[in-house]
Design goal:
Elements (H helix, E strand, L loop, with lengths): L10 E5 L11 E6 L8 H8 L3 H7 L10 E5 L8 E6 L8 H15 L6 E5 L6 H14 L17 E5 L3 H22 L7 H15 L2 E5 L1 H6 L3 H7 L7 E8 L17 E11 L8 H4 L7 H16 L4 E11 L11 E3 L5 E3 L7 H13 L5 E6 L3 H7 L4 E5 L2 H14 L3 E3 L17 E2 L8 H10 L7 E5 L5 E2 L9 E2 L4 H9 L3
Parallel strand pairs: 1-6, 2-4, 2-5, 5-6, 9-10, 9-13, 12-16, 13-17, 14-15
Antiparallel strand pairs: 3-4, 7-8, 8-10, 11-12, 14-17, 18-19
Helix pairs in contact: 3-4, 4-5, 5-10, 6-10, 8-11, 10-15, 11-14, 13-15
C-alpha cells in the first residue's frame, strides 16, 4: 500500500501464501530467537536451505541475540539474493516492541544501498499487533536523518513484501510507520525550514489529506484570544507564533448516538511546538543549542499521531492543540522579571526565558480545556531534568488522574516504548509560587525540575483528567542505534495511536 498522508513512502505489499524460499527479492529477512532455529518461519527457511541456519547456530555463528543481524549471501535453496537473520532474544521475552526494533534493525542494515524488493517473513505465532509493529519497524528503519545530503546513507526499498502476514495488519503497520516517519522528518528538518508558519502550513496539508478539521490562529487571533504566553515567548523572533487546532470526528463510525449534537471529544492531544529554542535572553550554550530544532518534537508527534488515527479511521473523537513559536533574542524578546497574564487569567513571573515551553502550553491547555475533553495528554520536550532522572530512552509521565496515566502507560507498553511515572506531590506546588505573581515559570533551585514543570502545567487543565509526557530524552538521539539513525525518533507516535485505539 502507499501512504495516504506521506507521499513517496514506498509500497508495502503482503503475500500471505507465498513460501519464503520462492519469493523473488534482493533480500529475505527471517527472525530467530535464542536457543536455535526452533519452529515457525525460521524452521521453514532452515529446511529450505538444507539445515544451514541450524548448522550456523550450532557453530555459534547465529546466536539469536536481540538485534543481532547476520547477512548470508547466496544461501542455498532460496531465490532471494541474500538471507538476513535477525535476533529476537529469548522467545518468552518477544514483544511487539522487540519486533518493531528487530525489523527496523534489518531494514536499516539493508538500506545502506539502493534495493528493489525486500521480503520479510512473519511468524505464525505472532499476534496481529506484533505483525503491525514489525511492519512499522521495517518501514521506519530504512529512513534516516540525511534529508539534505546529496548522497544519502539510507535508501527506501523499491518495495517491501511481507510473507505469512495478515493483509489488514500489514496495511495498518504501514500507516503507523508513515506517522512515525512524518514526525521524524519534521523534527530532522532545518529550523530555517520549519518555523511556526511553515509548520502550520504542514498541518493544513496533512489535514486536507486526512479529512481533519483545522483552525490556524495567527498573531492577531492570538491577541484577540488573550494568548499572552504564546505571544510573549514569540516576541523575540521575526517569525510570529501560531496556534493550530485539529479535530477528528470518528466516534460516529461505531453508530453511537450523540446527545444534543456534537459530544465533547473523548481525547485531547496537546503538543509543544518550539520550532527553535535559543533559550531567549537566558541564552543556551552552543552545544546545548545545536539540536534545539527538536524542541517541536511534541508538536510533530501529536500531528503525526492524529494523521495516523484519521487514516486508520479509529472510532474516537479527538481535538488537538499545537502551540508554535520560535524562542529567540530579538529586540522585543521577553525578559526575566516580566509578568505575563496567561489566557486563563493566571499571572506568571518569568525567572528564566529558557523555561518557555510551559508558558506556551499554558495557553494551549486553556484553549483545549474549553473543548471539555474527557482526557488531555500533552507531549513536550520540556525539561533536561527529566533526562537526568530517567535517561535518554525513557519518557516521564506526570498526572492528576491515575486512570488517565495508566491508560497512557499501558498504550506505551503495548508497542514497546518505555515510560515511567514520577510523583506529583502537593508540596511541589510551593516551589512555583511567586512573590509578585500567581506563579513563576521555574521551581526553587535545580532539584525536581521535571516535576515542578509538570505542576506548572497542572494549573491550566482545570481539573480535567490529564497526563503530561516529558519526551526530552527519547525524542532525539544524538547517536545511531542498531534500529535507527541518530536524530529524531518519532517518540510517542505509536503509543498515542494505541491510546486512541483503546478508546482514549
Amino acid at each position: 500500500m502507499t501512504s495516504e498522508f506521506l507521499p513517496g513512502a514506498g509500497s508495502i505489499t503482503c503475500e500471505p501464501s507465498t513460501r519464503p524460499q520462492a519469493v523473488e527479492a534482493e533480500a529475505l529477512v527471517v527472525f530467530m530467537a535464542e536457543g536455535g532455529v526452533g519452529a515457525g518461519s525460521a524452521a521453514e527457511v532452515d529446511a529450505a536451505t538444507g539445515g544451514l541456519l541450524a548448522r550456523l547456530a550450532a557453530a555459534g555463528e547465529l546466536t539469536g541475540r536481540r538485534y543481532e543481524c547476520v547477512p548470508l549471501l547466496a544461501a542455498p535453496g532460496i531465490r532471494a539474493g541474500q538471507l538476513v537473520v535477525v535476533g529476537l532474544g529469548r522467545r518468552e521475552d518477544v514483544t511487539a516492541g522487540v519486533l518493531y526494533r528487530a525489523a527496523a534493525t534489518a531494514a536499516r542494515h539493508l538500506s545502506a544501498r539502493p534495493r528493489g524488493r525486500v521480503a520479510f517473513v512473519a511468524d505464525g505465532s505472532w499476534s496481529t499487533k506484533q505483525v503491525e509493529q514489525a511492519v512499522a519497524g521495517a518501514a521506519v528503519g530504512m529512513v534516516g536523518q540525511d534529508l539534505y545530503r546529496a548522497e544519502r546513507k539510507r535508501n527506501r526499498f523499491g518495495g517491501t513484501i511481507w510473507i505469512s502476514a495478515p493483509v489488514e495488519a500489514v496495511d495498518r503497520g504501514g500507516v503507523i510507520a508513515d506517522g512515525v516517519n512524518l514526525a521524524r522528518r519534521l523534527v530532522n528538518m532545518a529550523p530555517d525550514d520549519v518555523y511556526p508558519q511553515s509548520f502550520a502550513d504542514e498541518c493544513a496539508t496533512i489535514a486536507g489529506r486526512t479529512g481533519l478539521d483545522i483552525e490556524i490562529w495567527d498573531e492577531h487571533h492570538l491577541v484577540r484570544e488573550r494568548c499572552n504566553g504564546i505571544l510573549a515567548v514569540g516576541r523575540g523572533s521575526s517569525r510570529p507564533p501560531r496556534l493550530v487546532l485539529l479535530r477528528y470526528r470518528g466516534a460516529g463510525r461505531t453508530g453511537q448516538a450523540r446527545a444534543g449534537g456534537d459530544a465533547p471529544p473523548q481525547l485531547a492531544l496537546v503538543g509543544k511546538g518550539v520550532t527553535f529554542d535559543s533559550g531567549g535572553l537566558s541564552l543556551k550554550p552552543s552545544d546545548g543549542m545545536l539540536t534545539m530544532k527538536c524542541d517541536m518534537s511534541g508538536a510533530a508527534a501529536v500531528l503525526a499521531a492524529t494523521a495516523t488515527i484519521a487514516t486508520l479511521k479509529l472510532p474516537i473523537d479527538l481535538v488537538v492543540g499545537i502551540g508554535l513559536v520560535e524562542n529567540m533574542t530579538g529586540p522585543a524578546a521577553y525578559k526575566l522579571g516580566d509578568v505575563i497574564t496567561a489566557r486563563s487569567g493566571t499571572t506568571i513571573e518569568v525567572h528564566n526565558t529558557d523555561a518557555e515551553g510551559r508558558i506556551v502550553l499554558a495557553d494551549v491547555l486553556d484553549v483545549i480545556r474549553g473543548e471539555k475533553p474527557r482526557r488531555i495528554v500533552d507531549l513536550a520536550t520540556l525539561t533536561g531534568a527529566c533526562v537526568v532522572a530517567l535517561g535518554q530512552d525513557v519518557a516521564g509521565l506526570f498526572t492528576n488522574d491515575q486512570p488517565c496515566c495508566d491508560a497512557v502507560a499501558a498504550a506505551a507498553r503495548e508497542v514497546g516504548e518505555p515510560v515511567w511515572q514520577l510523583p506529583m506531590f502537593p508540596d511541589y506546588d510551593e516551589q512555583i509560587k511567586s512573590e509578585v505573581a500567581d506563579i513563576k515559570n521555574v521551581g526553587d533551585g535545580r532539584w525536581g525540575g521535571a516535576i515542578t514543570a509538570a505542576k506548572f502545567l497542572e494549573r491550566f487543565v482545570g481539573g480535567i483528567p490529564w497526563t503530561h509526557v516529558d519526551i526530552a530524552g527519547p525524542a532525539f538521539s544524538e547517536k545511531s542505534r542498531p534500529w535507527t539513525d541518530g536524530g529524531a525518533t518519532g517518540s510517542m507516535v505509536r503509543p498515542l495511536v494505541e491510546l486512541a485505539r483503546n478508546g482514549g
